[in-house]
Amino acid sequence: MRTPLSSVRGRGSAKFGTDDYWVQRLTAAVLVPLSVVLIIFLVRNGAASHATVREALANPICAVLVAAAIIAGVVHMRVGMQVIIEDYVHGQPWSVLAIVLNWFFSALIVLASIWAVAKLSFGM
Amino acid sequence: MSTSKAKAAGGVERPLSPHLQIYAPSWTMVMSIVHRITGAALYFGTILLAYWLIAAAVGPKAFDTAQWILGSWIGRLVLFGYTWALVHHLIGGIRFLIWDFGRCFDEKPRFMLSKLNIVLSVPLTILLWIVAYAIK
Q1: What is the rounded CA–CA span in Å between residue A11 and residue A76?
Q2: B75 CB near a chain A CB, below 8 Å?
Q3: Contacts of A99 in chain B (CB under 8 A)
Q4: Which of B113, B123, B67 shows the shortest CA–CA distance to B93?
């Protein structure tokens, strides 16, 4: 049933419509400065010693910005890859399998990276 | 060719919308394709970033191994490509955000922005590597 409220919310029977699109743009905008931060961090520490990397991430601003860049980046790439999958992988079960694997891969990358940044930052 | 497509469409041969090979390449089209390719490359490239961070978190020994692998000539080549993909995708992303606001759709700015993407991304990537080597 189409109530005025449901029309306004713009959600059809799927209950979610533009969420991925919106998240993609939001993370894109946020990644403009954050990826620059990440690039600067990597340029400075790419060939550095272990102690230097630890020291850099011991700085809370640096650690939080790097973590933010990774989280926003992974959310962004999860949506982006799903768009690619939806464009090229047709028919069940492969389309569903690809989308699920995309979720798992993205979750693994973000969890592993954030664990590493946190461990280095806390000096453990 | 069409058996799988026909199956997906419920056993009926449907007309397909024209795809890439139908159109003559243009700057906007090529840069759109490159945006998708660099995006996919960055997706798998996150494995390298995660590996590097984990190695650092595990300890100096694991980190030295990671630095040795990524510092080899093939590692550097991959990282150079990764840097370019990131810079190119970043600049291309800004272009798409401008378009999202409905700006720069006229023929001249549209192609100018698309050309600017590759014109900026290549020298910027080289510059980043020069800086990285200089401060090492």
Answers
A1: 22
A2: no
A3: none
A4: B113
